[in-house]
Design brief:
Blueprint (H helix, E strand, L loop, with lengths): L14 E8 L4 E2 L7 E3 L2 E7 L5 E7 L5 H12 L2 H8 L16 E4 L7 H10 L2 E4 L9 H14 L9 H7 L11 H18 L8 H5 L6 H10 L10 H6 L1
Length: 243
């Protein structure tokens, strides 16, 4: 049994994969620095066709549908709103800007709920729910979680190697130095760097090579939309915020 994640995906923006993980870093309070608030939950949303990261969301509770829908909201809302809420430029380097997709690839968790069904019916979303214990069916986003964790370990204050630390039962929360906003700002730079540097030569087609498309997620995303195979679902911002 062999296949690829892009089988059946028409183009960029057609199918996103979403997943949450516990961030391998301890954070401090933005209100009072001496307080350690623990490890955050990181939602990541990835475009399956181009492998570009189209959005992410960091929170302190969950995983839950209340947090997952904010992750999807961060993909389709105006960047100026995110910049105003977080206090810094929220630019992941994608042109055109992402919108809501036709289909979202999820696991069996907070997405199998009445709230998720109601939102999908209102916004015209389709959730493709994987069978239980099959993370390999959305392996792309799982691997990106690992890439981000491996990159931050070793130089970010408070970052840990979860696999080693849990084996030794020795965590070091007192070494943490970043608050939630600072960690999100760091992740924006990491995501932007990934979108412009990750080698996706295996996704290149003869048409892309002829058009001199660079084998990076951001450029593959741009090419797909310029070639007319991208999917875009523009929703009025007021309705998006309400739903």
């Amino acid at each position: 049994l062999r296949g690829r994640s892009i089988d059946g995906v028409a183009g960029p923006g057609h199918c996103y994969a979403i997943d949450a993980t516990i961030g391998d870093i301890y954070l401090r309070s933005g209100i009072h620095r001496p307080w350690i608030i623990g490890r955050p939950i990181v939602y990541m949303v990835v475009d399956v066709w181009s492998t570009a990261i189209v959005g992410f969301f960091v929170c302190l509770t969950g995983p839950s549908w209340d947090m997952a829908k904010l992750a999807l909201f961060s993909v389709a809302c105006e960047p100026a709103l995110l910049a105003r809420l977080w206090g810094f430029r929220f630019d992941l380097g994608l042109d055109p800007l992402p919108t809501l997709p036709f289909m979202v690839l999820t696991d069996r968790g907070e997405y199998v709920s009445q709230g998720a069904r109601t939102t999908c019916e209102s916004l015209g979303l389709t959730f493709s729910v994987n069978p239980a214990y099959r993370p390999d069916l959305k392996g792309l986003v799982e691997v990106l979680h690992r890439i981000v964790k491996d990159q931050q370990f070793g130089f970010l204050p408070g970052a840990i190697n979860r696999r080693r630390e849990e084996m030794e039962l020795a965590a070091h929360p007192k070494e943490s130095a970043m608050n939630l906003r600072e960690y999100v700002e760091y992740l924006v730079s990491v995501v932007r760097f990934y979108n412009f540097t990750a080698d996706r030569s295996d996704r290149m087609t003869a048409e892309m090579i002829a058009e001199e498309v660079k084998p990076f997620p951001a450029d593959i995303w741009r090419y797909g939309h310029s070639a007319g195979i991208g999917y875009r679902k523009l929703i009025v911002q007021d309705r998006l915020k309400l739903d």
